[in-house]
């Protein structure tokens, strides 16, 4: 009997312990805004009784108050009442000029329109928590900041935070098509239900706005950079205006990708030459039309003369001619142009990594003040690892905007876990050495030297109509980290992972530590099993899913993986030093010098810059060939370890999300092995070398790997 009782007690206590995690089936829709109940500790005791705001609340302030009520209801069990007076224990929302008497808001003026201050204070003898800002949007960001602080374990009583974004434009780029397919989208259909807009405004748009506002994202480009002319016609402008109305209270402006040849294709001009007066006049009238419908429209994003897209070069004009013409049309309305530097043209046989710099560097200083040049993080194309783009720091007279890809086109789509925080951080912290005392990419973006110039960051969104928004639970973290880095490019990827995991999965310290550890290792694992040691662009044709290092039959040389690895009987790697393409010369002398010598080039970038013999002696003491295989093996081992670590988390994570993640990790292990085996089989066929001692023989023949095809892969275009 006693034994039974003991067992029963154990079961009961187990149920009690596990109850919170299993009580609600979670499907991920709530993202990091779950607001689960806080433990009955200090935090909950300091429950806010009221939320006070003096004055008439704008839609933005209403959004802030609603979010605070929703969050506090979830975390403390009670939604505070809203009052205009300040009671003890209140959360006080206050703008500069209307701050509670006796409250000192030191430094508030320096925080700008979007910054905020969170402070627990004593006002007229009453303990309150103040969210202070200069503008309504600062109050909304402050409300989210307060909820995040609470959710991640900071009590209200000791709050003392000030925060302001370091970049002005923090923008998502949706590569969403008008038929609701998404280029490189792995999260289902586009969330924009274009067909039903403008009449039907789905609730999900509001949740989208809340999630983005919680990170400080303040702009969204709604459509694919490979744009269509129709988006700029009246029926579509009405749809865009409906979305702008929904997003406006959350501080999010809408932008559109504009197709260069729009007026010509709509047969409203006879040319698309940027210097033709009829073309400039058309764009001016079009801008006027858009702003009549959307007074705070953000502006245009343009992909021109890249991958077959039309552009000013079709008329022997420069990128600056094109960008400035559009900028002139938008300037009266305070709109901007984000002109992409992702260009490479068929006629240019030179190293593809050099083309953006070659085309854009000479245009430094030639762009209108409301133009930003948007540069991908690396010079090729969103690879698992790339050195930072040589344009950063090299165009001091032009505002440069970072473009990261959140959707993981080259990192296993939404099927592999790869937390991108470390990738973002690595690029942002890279020293361009364009100043004697150093100049990191983050500093280039922040551009503090030039005061009023535009600054910004763009992230190619991984958002879709999938119930998890991002195609998988862990891919939400990439959206989250992107937003946090856009707010603070000098931020810390581990800290962001910790915040995210705490809000999204569990406040249990053991769970958080494990999850963060998995996240922090995950991207390097992908690098190792796909493209170790600086290899790049080895993915199979079209869809980029899975290995294709053997591919050499595409329309142009620089679409072929063989172009990038240049492996032959003697060695492997792309010589970008002076003896090769000399892409290195595009970097500042300090960087170029370090990477010119394989001995001083970090292993991670070795084959990006050097072509080396298979028996090259690596710092590890192994030959290059042995090291390469070891890296592939390390990647597989890491993928297996991710899976094993997740298994241990089973008691700490709710069932549905546990299972959904487990399935993806199983897939990742399987595909990591496939990547490793296919790559090793191929490189072995080229090098003719025996497998290093102890290395496992690939499970299939090279021909079998080559025969794997995916005509209907997701995100294909
Ligand atoms: C590449 C994608 C392609 C995009 C292009 C771009 O494969 O689908 O259109 O980038 O950024 O990564 O324009």
Automatic annotation (TrEMBL):
Q: Which InterPro entries match?
A: A-glucoronidase_C_sf, GH, Glyco_hydro_67_aGlcAse, Glyco_hydro_67_aGlcAse_N, Glyco_hydro_67_C, Glyco_hydro_67_cat, Hex-like_dom2
GO CC annotation, single:
extracellular region
What keyword terms does UniProt attach to this protein?
Carbohydrate metabolism, Glycosidase, Hydrolase, Polysaccharide degradation, Signal, Xylan degradation
Signal peptide bounds: 1-23
Q: Which GO terms describe its molecular function?
A: alpha-glucuronidase activity; xylan alpha-1,2-glucuronosidase activity
Has the keyword Signal been applied to this entry? yes
Q: Which residues cross the membrane?
A: none
Q: Keyword Iron-sulfur: yes or no? A: no
Active site as annotated: 307 (proton donor), 381 (proton acceptor), 409 (proton acceptor)
Q: Which EC numbers does the record give?
A: 3.2.1.131
The UniProt record lists the Alpha glucuronidase N-terminal domain at: 31-145
Q: What family classification does the UniProt entry report for this protein?
A: Belongs to the glycosyl hydrolase 67 family.
Its assembly, as annotated, is:
Homodimer.
Know the name of this protein? Xylan alpha-1,2-glucuronidase
- Which organism's genome codes for this protein? Pseudoduganella lutea
Q: What is the lineage of its organism?
A: Bacteria, Pseudomonadati, Pseudomonadota, Betaproteobacteria, Burkholderiales
């Amino acid at each position: 009997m006693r034994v039974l009782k003991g067992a029963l007690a154990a079961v009961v206590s187990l149920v009690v312990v596990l109850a919170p995690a299993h009580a609600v089936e979670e499907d991920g829709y709530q993202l990091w805004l779950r607001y689960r109940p806080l433990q009955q500790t200090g935090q909950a005791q300091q429950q806010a009784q009221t939320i006070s705001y003096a004055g008439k609340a704008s839609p933005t302030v209403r959004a802030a108050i609603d979010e605070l009520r929703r969050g506090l209801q979830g975390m403390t069990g009670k939604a505070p009442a809203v009052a205009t007076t300040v009671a003890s224990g209140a959360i006080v929302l206050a703008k500069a000029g209307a701050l509670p008497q006796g409250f000192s808001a030191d430094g508030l003026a320096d925080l700008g329109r979007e910054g905020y201050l969170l402070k627990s204070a004593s006002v007229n003898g009453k303990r309150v928590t103040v969210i202070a800002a200069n503008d309504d949007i600062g109050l909304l960001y402050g409300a989210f900041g307060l909820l995040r602080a609470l959710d991640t374990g900071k009590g209200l009583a000791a709050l003392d935070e000030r925060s302001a974004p370091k970049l002005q434009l923090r923008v998502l780029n949706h590569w969403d098509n008008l038929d609701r397919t998404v280029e490189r989208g792995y999260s289902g259909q586009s969330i924009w239900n274009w067909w039903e807009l403008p009449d039907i405004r789905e609730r999900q748009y509001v949740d989208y706005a809340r999630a983005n506002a919680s990170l400080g994202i303040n702009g969204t480009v709604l459509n694919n950079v490979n744009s269509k002319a129709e988006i700029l016609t009246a029926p579509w402008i009405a749809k865009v205006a409906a979305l702008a109305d929904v997003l406006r209270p959350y501080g999010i402006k809408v932008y559109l990708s504009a197709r260069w040849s729009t007026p010509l294709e709509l047969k409203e001009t006879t040319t698309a030459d940027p210097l033709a007066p009829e073309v400039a006049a058309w764009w001016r009238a079009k801008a006027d039309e858009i702003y009549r419908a959307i007074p705070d429209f953000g502006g245009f994003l343009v992909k021109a003369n890249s991958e077959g897209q039309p552009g000013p070069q079709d008329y022997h004009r420069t990128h600056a001619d094109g960008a400035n013409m559009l900028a002139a049309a938008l300037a009266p309305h305070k709109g901007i142009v984000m002109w992409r530097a992702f260009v490479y043209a068929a006629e240019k046989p030179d190293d593809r990594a050099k083309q953006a710099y070659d085309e854009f560097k000479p245009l430094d200083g030639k762009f209108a003040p409301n133009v930003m040049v948007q540069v991908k993080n690396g010079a090729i194309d969103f690879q698992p690892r790339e050195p930072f783009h040589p344009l950063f720091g090299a165009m001091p007279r032009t505002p440069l905007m970072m473009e990261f890809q959140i959707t993981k086109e080259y990192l296993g789509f939404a099927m592999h876990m790869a937390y991108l925080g470390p990738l973002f951080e690595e690029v942002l912290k890279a020293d361009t050495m364009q100043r004697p005392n150093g100049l990191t990419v983050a500093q280039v973006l922040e551009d503090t030297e030039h005061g009023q110039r535009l600054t910004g960051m763009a992230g190619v969104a991984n958002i879709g109509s999938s119930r998890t928004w991002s195609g998988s639970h862990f891919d939400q973290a990439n959206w989250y980290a992107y937003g946090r880095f856009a707010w603070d490019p000098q931020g810390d990827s581990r800290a962001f992972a910790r915040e995210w995991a705490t809000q999204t999965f569990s406040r249990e310290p053991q769970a958080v530590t494990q999850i963060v550890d998995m996240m922090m290792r995950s991207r390097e694992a992908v690098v190792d099993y796909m493209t170790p040691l600086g290899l790049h662009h080895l993915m199979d044709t079209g869809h980029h899913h899975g290995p294709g290092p053997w591919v050499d039959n595409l329309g142009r040389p620089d679409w072929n993986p063989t172009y990038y690895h240049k492996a032959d009987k003697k060695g492997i790697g792309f010589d970008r030093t002076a003896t090769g393409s000399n892409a290195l010369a595009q970097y500042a002398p300090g960087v170029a010098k370090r990477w010119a010598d394989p001995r001083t080039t970090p292993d991670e970038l070795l084959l990006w810059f050097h072509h080396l013999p298979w028996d090259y002696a690596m710092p590890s003491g192994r030959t290059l060939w042995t090291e390469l295989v070891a890296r592939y093996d390390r990647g597989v081992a890491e993928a297996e370890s991710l899976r094993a670590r997740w298994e241990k988390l089973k008691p700490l994570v709710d069932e549905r999300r546990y299972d959904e993640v487990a399935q993806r990790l199983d897939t990742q292990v399987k595909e990591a092995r496939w990547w490793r085996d296919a790559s090793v089989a191929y490189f072995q066929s080229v090098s003719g070398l025996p497998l290093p001692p102890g290395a496992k023989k690939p499970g299939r023949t090279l021909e079998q790997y080559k025969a794997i095809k995916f005509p209907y892969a997701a995100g294909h275009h």
